[in-house]
Fold each of these.
Amino acid sequence: MRLLDLVLLALKTLLKNKLRSGLTILGVVIGIASVTTIVSIGQGGQQLIQDQFANLGTNVIAVIPGSGQSGGVRQGIVPTLTPGDAKALAQECPSIKAVSPLVGAAGQVIGGNSNWKPEQMFGVGPDYLIIRNWPIESGEFFTERDINGATKVCVVGQTIATQLFPGTDAVGQQVRVKNIPFQIIGVLARKGTNMFGQDQDDILLMPYTTVQKRLQGSTFSNLGAILVSATTQELSRQAEQEIRAVLSERHKIAPGHPPDFRVQNTIEALAIMNIVTGSLTAMLAVIAAISLVVGGVGIMNIMLVSVTERTREIGIRMALGARPRDILYQFLVESVVLSSIGGAIGIALGISASAGLAALINKFLPSSNWPFTVSLPAALGAMLFAAIVGVFFGFYPARRASQLDPIEALRYE
């Protein structure tokens, strides 16, 4: 018989016992649905993590001051980074695309008839937006000229622009920070909240020299950190090595001695997070796949019962010329069709469950913005696994049916 005829015959046979067929494939449905849901939610989590790291910037590497020592005793964080270090990194590290000094600040911002305390207030360099991959929505960013002149200009995020100047363009407006007037020259594009619920648009940026000289009143040029963007993700580790080499030479760090700075690479953190989420997803998927084995055992039991019930039918088919392999194929196809139907239903339920769980997460945790993803390889793999389950657990009943003696089968009551 042709394969199509065998499939149609299998469907006709299974439809005769709808309830039994439905209960038989229940284990396969649950297993496939569980695997599809877990893999989809796991990949949604990985996508969320990647999106959040992308929000931090492009191939970002942070250089922060390390702990100093005096007489063998650690002295805590020591401000060892300078603007000269940042310039040296930009000039001497070929794997680096952009460098920006970073100086922290805090205080009330007064504008119009309102005041506001930003969550983030930094003094940065002209390349800061390149590193953070953050476009300007209106106006412009400050330049090297503003850095050299420590000019009183600033760029604000969407939250500050909305809070201080609702309904009007914030560009060109004046705000006061610690009673020092600043002119807003640009407004950043909206980024939204990060995975921790922090409003990324509640930010005010100024030239780092302005923060040092006018807000802090400091005669020192030490930096809170240096942000660096590697040319490509593949060159991120090489850029990290170049940073260590340049700063160790500038800070005269002797071989074998701990450096007075630390280098933190977001690519490494992203890789670790992906490994953790991937491992958890794989482990849970394996646990869920156990129910597929249970479902396969159920298919084998029902197929054995079916062989017993249809012994006389098998004898008649053999008497009419059916070969043992024809009987083997018939029952094997029935088993595969049964498991494949369960797999298709399981995939549909898994996709629906994934969409529902993603919607629930976003409803109760709006800041998470959990993405709904469907893994096509996982769905196809689950379907293939369901067919393999049908072949594996259906082979024994099919082989048993094919080995029946035609005379004995015809006599069977």
Amino acid sequence: MNIVNTIQEVREQVKKWRMEGLTVGLVPTMGYLHEGHKSLIDRAVAENDRVVVSVFVNPMQFGPSEDLESYPRDMDRDAALCEDAGASLIFHPEPSEMYHDDFSSFVDMNTLTGGLCGKTRPIHFRGVCTVVAKLFHIVTPDKAYFGQKDAQQLAVIRHMVSDLDFGVEIVGCPIIREEDGLAKSSRNTYLNPQERQAALVLSRSLKLGKQMMDSGEKDTKAVISAIRSEIEKEPLAKIDYVEIVDWNTLEPVETVEGPVLTAIAVYIGKTRLIDNFIKQ
């Protein structure tokens, strides 16, 4: 497995693979990889001849008061995980490699990005779409892999690919959780022991909501109310949002019909965590 830092090196390697008739998968990440990322790499390795993992903390998707500088980084650990999982290449560029001094072109959309995380992170998805579009142009993968934990991101990327006719298949992969139910996240490292225990309220409240739907509850207001009440029992938790939306449009729905996404964002102390489930 090689680690490269420039766009040119990636393109040269992918060109060689293409000349050999090999398929290429891409797993875009911001590094500090965990078992959730490994599950994406594992699936990519199973479905493609070669796999590129990008490790890039994208400054464009962080707001002025967000955790760009403190976002966890450990390239040696990331490289070991990628190699163990069977990745072929890590693309680990500097911001200056991805965004030159007079960079001024962006990818944005008018739908899917205004609600959920887009309400409190208004520039986030423009940054996500721009960097992912660049990665698709650089790597030209056959398939790209994204986790369901970032469900809005997954929906946004799928919509962008459809709108802009990228020749890449988007593969969504299930949420990977700790044994106690907490969704795997690089930001979990911010939690102290008391906060780590308090964070279990996210998965616990969603489990309650899912049980209600599975038992036949169709009124989304009732489900949202129950989820909020459960979260509010935890003193360290502060709700950003609890929403139930159409999984295809991400628009709020009043009744559970068809595929719906139940998504939450909760501050545990100063750390903002997200979680969700999809009912088909």
